[in-house]
What we know:
Blueprint: E1 20-23, E2 28-31, E3 38-42, H1 53-71, E4 76-82, H2 87-95, H3 100-117, E5 125-128, H4 133-145, E6 149-151, E7 159-161, H5 177-186, E8 203-207, E9 223-225, H6 227-239, E10 243-249, H7 253-268, E11 274-280, E12 283-285, E13 288-289, H8 300-305, H9 310-317, E14 326-327, H10 330-347, H11 355-367, H12 372-388, H13 396-408
Parallel strand pairs: 3-4, 3-10, 4-5, 10-11, 12-14
Antiparallel strand pairs: 1-2, 6-7, 7-8, 8-9, 12-13
Zinc ion is lined by residues 43, 81, 231, 256.
Amino acid sequence: MDSWTGHEVPRLPGAGVPLALFDSARRSVAPTRPVDPATMYVCGITPYDATHLGHAATMLAFDLVQRMWRDAGHRVRYVQNVTDVDDPLLERAARDGEDWVVLAMRETALFREDMEALRIIPPDHYVGAVESIPAIAERVGVLLDRGAGYRLADGTGDVYFDVAAAPRFGYESNLSREQMLVFAAERGGDPQRPGKRDPLDPLLWRGARDGEPAWDGGPLGPGRPGWHIECAVIALGLLGDRIDVQGGGNDLLFPHHECSAAHAEVLTGTGPFAAHYAHAGMIGLNGEKMSKSRGNLVFVSRLRGDGVPPMALRLALISGHYRADRQWTDDTLKTGQQRWHRWREAARSAAGPSGAELLAGVRGRLADDLDTPGALALIDEWADHALAGTGADPQAPTLMAETCDALLGVRLRD
Ligand code: 5CA
Ligand code: ZN
């Protein structure tokens, strides 16, 4: 499907810095070591409601990964999916008496618009689950042939993945079996379902049901794909057997990324599927995770409609560290707006403290697991001096604006 429109990213002087990122599998910050092109897959939306601040924050975190890699001279190949058929989408459409295809198209269009407004570099491939069904069905067939998948004996046509086929299952999330069972039940799995070899076995293919959309699955029979195999197949098809970063929110740590990695590794016979499993923290409101199911959403489009400059919103969203679960408050937004106005004013100053030092400082902070609070503090300090007239570098305001544009995605000058 179509991606959104990007924009020029300025080339900064000097050399970029290699990016280190937290990897959930190793549970530590480790250098990314991309061999060109750097490859990244980020789990995108299930389009049954508008883009909320949680989605935007996660997309922003991975946008910064891409910016750091580009600044270090790498070419980047970036893929993001749209889960444009899945239970929650079908349930919402049924609840509202709407055509699920139209619902998915509308919310995906709004997401693209929000991403563009936030100046998020578009993926090279923006791929829907539906358009990937032939490839998914083929790979599910391979898993079945290899004995890594099995058909449930209850006549539904449902096919499951046997987690015993993935010897390293569990390495990505590092959770106890008890915790895995809890998350599987909460996050789209069905550990209680009778007839499975292991309660943790995830669905690969759901046989056709009355009233549900279904596609020709060849030897699988009619049906639709499971969730984890969707991301595994899209990533393998467009990025190869091993990728640099698998990204998403930390609600995807288990079962989604664990199962995607297990599917991919059994299919390719190699691993790990991703050199880094990177997870953004959850944005919450009033003490709870912001989620469609809880209904406590702040929409990007609503804030845009209220006249909030997208760049102020961007600054507000990156003011906390990407990995921290954090609460969105009125103050978060207010501080973002104040910062946006102050930085714009500072970028128009006649001079400021050394631009080269500022650039080196910001690169250093971001290279250390995307320390945006640290980077923002450096720019705040620079802006204080520029506005107080205590800096002597006449080139600095231009370099400051280009640094903000290229590395943070925040455009200060019109
Ligand atoms: N379609 C699947 C991924 S394949 C999905 O999780 N869709 S989603 O619409 O629920 O979320 C889209 C992306 O935003 C995912 O990476 C998810 O981890 C992230 N996300 C969802 N809610 C939040 C939140 N409250 N804060 C931060 N990130 C979130
Ligand atoms: Zn995914």
